[in-house]
Structures are given as structure tokens and as C-alpha cells.
Design a protein that fits this description.
By secondary structure, this protein is an alpha/beta fold. It has eleven helices and 13 strands. Bound molecules: adenosine-5'-triphosphate. The site of adenosine-5'-triphosphate (ATP) has 11 residues, from strand 2 and helix 1. Pfam families: ABC_tran.
Length: 325
């Protein structure tokens, strides 16, 4: 059994100023299907949090509950301290939402659609902001074309600009880059990171694209069949799975075989393997700190020393299989 690190949310946690989203015992059933089961989760202000999980795991249902677009069967949800069921309109003003399939008025241009959203939100004097957003999502060239001529990826980019027009303090994105080309993805990820760094925006995104999530998210939650089976940073989850063992990458100048002999002798070192110019040292967590000193004392010059953590896809597969077997 893998320790999931999933603890119930503290009661009344949403009143604390550092929590943007709090979910406490959320269950959502559709007839016989339980889409989300006893979910407890907190997303902190200024955090980028990734929801991961296979099709049908319950990610979209959770997001719709946060936006007041569907009601919990039981449990309690708060967004910026507000109850989405009762204050959906207020939440809509402060939360930008990018659904997986974005719809716009097809006969209006991208720019006109953004203007329309701004007006709906009571914002005036937004022309410069709209120009900037179109540039940030890479749509300046198509700003004055009707959205009926946009590709799916272009609509998705416009969806992100549209959610940002109202200057939200929380952004919720469902598969934000699924139709966007790799170069566009890098641009969008950079933008999300900048918005967090510069404006302290809280970001919740769902994705299947694990490398992307690994690159951008501070913490991730892994969903399987309506349950959140693990929460933490990629490094924390990786450490939890490794059961107190670590792989260290070591690079030394000169006599590599002699370095292998030094490492093999150390307490807590289980195996030393070669991978190109590097040595991979499988050792107990406590042994990691002794490697560098031992090598230097034996006269080796250390060129590289780094803890190797699991990639998110490895972590995901492990938790996924644990819960479905
Ligand atoms: N309106 C609905 N009516 C009935 N069942 C639904 C409804 N919405 C979702 N479900 C079911 O709830 C479960 C969770 O669906 P949900 O869309 O939340 O998953 P997801 O993790 O977002 O999946 P995907 O990655 O495919 O978008 C699925 O079994 C789905 O069939």
C-alpha cells in the first residue's frame, strides 16, 4: 500500500487567507455513477496545482463543482471563501475558467469576443490589455479574423486570453493545451508561470500531459476512479514511492573505477551503476550526504552531484496501478 499523503482538509480552513480553494468531503453522484468520492483538497493562494487522472476520473466534475456549474451530492466546497452553489456569479467574476472545448461567437473576431467579455464584466478602457493578452497567447496575427476561421488550438489560446481579461485571482483550466502545438504550449506555460509570479494568481489545471504538469506545477493530485489517491510535489511523491531509497547521479574526473570502489565501500550504498559519464548510486536517504565527502577525501574531483527523482509518469503509473489492481 502506498501512502497517499491525502489528509482531510482542516475544518474552517477556507477562512485562512492562504487557502484559495478548499474541498471537504466532496462527493458527486450521477445516478449510479459516483464521479467524485469523498474528496479532500486545499489549493493555496499563489500555487499552481495540477489535477491528473485518466478519462472519467472525476477531474471535470470537481472543476464544475468549484464553479457552481454542478452541485455536490454531499460535502463542502469553498472558492476564495465563497460557496459556489450560492455565490456562483461572484465566483465567476473572480475566477477565470478555460473549459476543454472553448466556444465563442463565430461571427465576431477574436478581439471583439474579448471586448464582449470585458464589457460583460463591467470593465472599460481595456484596448491595451486586450492587445497585450492577444500578444501573450500568440494571436496578434489573427486578432481581427472571425473566430469561425480559428483552429481548435487558436480557440484554446483565445479561451485563455478570454479568462484573463477579467483579471481573475484564480484560474481554472481544463486541459489547457490539449490542441496547442509544442511551441504554443511553451508560451502558455510561461504565461501561466508569469501570472503566478507577478500577480500571485492561483492556478488549478487538469491535464493528461504529465511532462507539462511536472514542469509547471508546485503540487499535483492524482485522481483514480473518483478518488484522490496522492497529493504532493513531484519530489515528495517520488520520495514516498522510493521507500527511503534514493538514486544519486555522481560525476567525477579521472579514475572512475577507483571512484566506484570508494562508493561501494560506503554504508547505505546498495549498488553503483555506470550511465555514460555518470555513476548512478542507489543508496539509503541518509547515505546521500556522505558521498561527496568520501570521494573528495579519496582524492577525486567532483564534477556533478544530483538527486535523481522519478518522473511524473513513473509516479503516476505506480499510483494508478496500485488503485486499479
Ligand atoms: N452529466 C453527467 N451525467 C452522468 N454521468 C456523468 C456526467 N458527467 C460526468 N459523468 C461521469 O462521471 C465520471 C467522471 O467524469 P469526469 O468528466 O468528471 O472525468 P474526467 O476526469 O474529467 O475525465 P476526462 O479526462 O475524460 O475529461 C465519468 O464516469 C462520467 O461518465
Amino acid at each position: 500500500m502506498i501512502d497517499s499523503g491525502v489528509a482531510p482538509a482542516a475544518s474552517g480552513a477556507d477562512v485562512a487567507t492562504d487557502v484559495a480553494i478548499s474541498i471537504d468531503g466532496l462527493t458527486r453522484r450521477y445516478g449510479e455513477v459516483t464521479a467524485v468520492r469523498q474528496l479532500n483538497l486545499e489549493v493555496y493562494r499563489g500555487e499552481i496545482f495540477g489535477l491528473l487522472g485518466p478519462n472519467g476520473a472525476g477531474k471535470t466534475t470537481t472543476i464544475l463543482t468549484l464553479l457552481g456549474l454542478t452541485e455536490p451530492t454531499s460535502g463542502r466546497v469553498r472558492v476564495l471563501g465563497m460557496d459556489p452553489t450560492r455565490e456562483a456569479i461572484k465566483i465567476k467574476r473572480q475566477v477565470g475558467y478555460v473549459p476543454d472545448a472553448v466556444g465563442f461567437y463565430p461571427t465576431l473576431t477574436g478581439r471583439q469576443n474579448l471586448r464582449y467579455t470585458a464589457r460583460l464584466n463591467g470593465l472599460t478602457d481595456v484596448e491595451d490589455e486586450i492587445d497585450r493578452l492577444l500578444e501573450q497567447v500568440g494571436l496578434t496575427h489573427a486578432a481581427d479574423a472571425r473566430t469561425s476561421t480559428y483552429s481548435r488550438g487558436m480557440l484554446q489560446r483565445l479561451g485563455i486570453a478570454d479568462a484573463l481579461v477579467k483579471r481573475p485571482s484564480v484560474m481554472i483550466l481544463d486541459e489547457p493545451t490539449i490542441s496547442i502545438d509544442p511551441e504554443g504550449v511553451q508560451r502558455i506555460l510561461r504565461l501561466i508561470r508569469e501570472l503566478r509570479d507577478e500577480h500571485g494568481m492561483t492556478v488549478l489545471l487538469s491535464s493528461h500531459l504529465l511532462y507539462q504538469v511536472q514542469e509547471i506545477c508546485d503540487r499535483v493530485g492524482i485522481f483514480v476512479k473518483g478518488r484522490l489517491v496522492a497529493v504532493g510535489s513531484v519530489e515528495e511523491l517520488s520520495r514516498r514511492l522510493s521507500g527511503g531509497r534514493t538514486v544519486m547521479e555522481v560525476g567525477v574526473a579521472g579514475d572512475v573505477e577507483a571512484a566506484v570502489r570508494v562508493l561501494d565501500e560506503l554504508d547505505g550504498v546498495r549498488e553503483v551503476e555506470r550511465e555514460g559519464d555518470l555513476l548512478l548510486v542507489d543508496c539509503a536517504d541518509e547515505a546521500c550526504e556522505t558521498l561527496a565527502g568520501a570521494l573528495v577525501r579519496a582524492g577525486h574531483t567532483l564534477l556533478h552531484l544530483r538527486r535523481r527523482s522519478s518522473h511524473l509518469d513513473e509516479i503516476y503509473q505506480r499510483y494508478f496501478h496500485e488503485k486499479t489492481e
